[in-house]
Amino acid sequence: MIDLSSLPINLIDKRVTVLGAKRSGLAAALVLAKNGARVLLSDSGDIAIPLIVQKDLHKYNVTVETGRHSSEVLKSDFIVISPGIPNSAPIVKDIESAGIPIVSEIEIAYWFMPEAQLIAVTGSNGKTTTTTLIYEMFKNTRFDAYCGGNIGVPFSSLISDAQKDTGKPKVFILEVSSFQLERIIHFHPNAAIILNVTDDHMDRYDHDISLYLKAKLNISRNQNKNDLFIYFEDDVLLKNNLPDFPQKLPFGFTINPQMRFKTDMTRIFTKDDQVYIDRQDIALLGEHNLLNILAALNVADYYNLPQKNIKGLLKRFSGIEHRLEYVRTLDGVDYYNDSKATNIESVKYALKSFTKPVIIILGGRDKDSDFSLLLPLLRKHAKKAITIGEAADKIKKVIDGIINYSYANSLENAVLQAKNDAVAGDIILLAPACASFDMFVNYEHRGNVFKTIVNSLTERDSDER
User: Which of 419, 416, 420, 450 is CA-nearest to residue 432?
Assistant: First the structure.
C-alpha cells in the first residue's frame, strides 16, 4: 500500500487497480501507466473497449479484466474508482476492509498538474452549461485553457494534452460530480463553484440530502484563504453550510452587498450599479441560465478576463447540446431536446422557460425522485405528458387525474404521439426527469436518438392541418 497523505511524486512500479473501464477509467489507466505504474483495469461488466484504446493499453502494459473483479484487485497499492460504482458495492467493501486507499479519477489527474489553475464547477443543475460558458470566456486570452471532467474529456486525458509548452499559464475548467468528489484527497480548485443543491441521486445517498450536500462541499476541502468559493445565495441549505477558509462570493437573485454582479428583470449590473448587459441581449434562455451566467461572470472578473469579449460571448452563446436544445420547428410546433434534465429541479427549469403549451416526454430510470414536486408546473405549462421507460408507472400514479397523459413503449412512439397531439404554437419537450440507463447508454445517446427521430418527421399533408 501507499501513503497518500502527501502528494505522490513517484508512481514507478506502484500497483494500481482502476475499477471501471468506461471513459474516465480508461483515461486514468493510461495516465497512470504512462507515469510508470503497473495498472490493472478491472470491470465487472462485459464491456467493449474501442480497438484504438486497446492498442494504447497494450502499449503501456495495462492488464485488462472484464466480467469480474479478481483477487488481484486486493493486491493493489491504491485503487482508482469509477464514479458510477457506489460505495455499497461488494468490491468496495472488500477494498475498504483490506485497508487499501480509494481515490477518484479527478484526484489522480490533479497529481500531474498541481501548479496549473483549476476551476471546478458542481451543483445539482447547470454544471455543464456553466463549465462550458466559463471555458468559452477563457478562449483567446492570456491563458491556455482546457475543459472537461464530468463532461466531454476526462481530467486525466486533458493532462496529456496540456503537457506541451504554449508559453501561457494553464487553466483547467472542470465539471465535477458529487460521485467524483467523494474520493478526493489533494484535489484543490483555485476557484470552486456550487450552483445549487437539490434532491438528486437520493438512491445513492440513503434519501439523505445532507449526505449529498457533504459530497458537494468536498469541492472546498483543500481550499485556503487565497482561493475563491462561489455559491448560490438563495440556496438556504448551501448558505447555512459554507466552508470556513476560502474567500466566499455569492450570486443569485437576492441582493447581497458582497455580490460583484446582480440582476433585475431587465439587466445585469456590476457591484457599483453600472449596467453590464441588457438581459434581452443574452442568447441563453431561462432564469436558471441567468444564474449560471452570474456564476460564470464572477470567475471571469476574478481572472480579469476582457469584458468586451465576454459581452460578445453572452450575445451569441445559446447553450449546450442536450440542455434545452432547440431541434426544429415542424407544422408550427417547436421541438426541444432537454435529455440532460435527469432530475426534478432541471425539469422545473425547463418548464418555466416556456410560455407556450408544452407536451412533455417524461420517464426513464427513476433515481428515487418525488415526481409530485412537478405537479404545480405541469398544471401551469403542460397540456399533456407522455411517459416512457421504467418510471412510467410511478409517474402515471402521480399525474393521473391532474393532466392528460399517455404511455409510449419507446421514445419513437412518444415523439409520434406528441406530434399527433400537438397544434401550431405548441412545444414538444423531451425532459425526462430520470436517468437514461433503462433504454439508452447515457443521456447523450437518448438526446441524439430524440433528435434523429424529430429530424426524420415529415410535415402533415394540408388536409390533416
Answer: 450
Nearest to 359 by CA among 432, 433, 418: 418
Strands annotated E in 191-308: 191-194, 228-232, 247-251, 261-263, 267-270, 275-278
Query: Does residue 441 register a pLDDT over 50?
Result: yes
pLDDT at 168: 93
C-alpha cell at 12: 514507478
What's the rounded Cα separation, in Å, for the pair 345 and 336? 17
Residue 101 CA neighbour count, 13 Å, CB half: 19
* Mean pLDDT on 29-37: 96
Q: Name the average pLDDT for the chain.
A: 93
Q: How large is the average pLDDT for residues 332-351?
A: 94
**CATH fold group of domain 107-316:** UDP-N-acetylmuramoyl-L-alanine:D-glutamate ligase (3.40.1190)
d(CA 340, CA 431): 7
Nearest CA among 81, 123, 77 for reference residue 291: 123
Do residues 226 and 191 lie in contact, with contact meaning Cβ atoms separated by under 8 Å?
no
Domain coordinates in residue numbering, the chain? 15-100, 107-316, 325-456
Q: Rounded CA gap, 323 and 126, in Å?
A: 9
Residue 146: which pLDDT band, with cuts at 50, 70 and 90?
A: very high
DSSP for 114-126, written as a single string: TTSEEEEEE-SSS
Q: Which residues pair with 385 in a beta bridge?
A: 360, 405
**Measured CA angle at 382 (ends 433, 360), to 5 deg:** 40
Longest dimension (CA), the chain: 75
Q: Which three cell numbers stand for residue 122?
A: 458542481
Are 427 and 381 a contacting pair, CB within 8 Å?
Answer: no
In CATH terms, the superfamily for domain 15-100 is: NAD(P)-binding Rossmann-like Domain (3.40.50.720)
Tell me the percentage of the chain whose pLDDT exceeds 90.
83
- Interatomic CA distance for residues 429 and 381, integer angstroms: 11
**What pLDDT was estimated at residue 328?**
95
CA-to-CA dists, residue 345 to 198, 199, 432, angstroms: 7, 8, 11
371 C-beta neighbours (distance < 10 Å), count: 23
Q: Which DSSP symbol is given to 365?
A: B
Q: Which CATH architecture has domain 325-456?
A: Alpha-Beta Complex (3.90)
- pLDDT of 463 reads 47
Instruction: Catalogue the E-assigned strands of 264-324.
Output: 267-270, 275-278
pTM over 0.70: yes
SS3 344: helix
Pairing of strands 267-270, 261-263: antiparallel
**What strands, in cross-sheet order, belong to the sheet with 405-407?**
325-330, 333-337, 427-430, 358-363, 382-388, 405-407
Pairing of strands 63-66, 102-104: unpaired
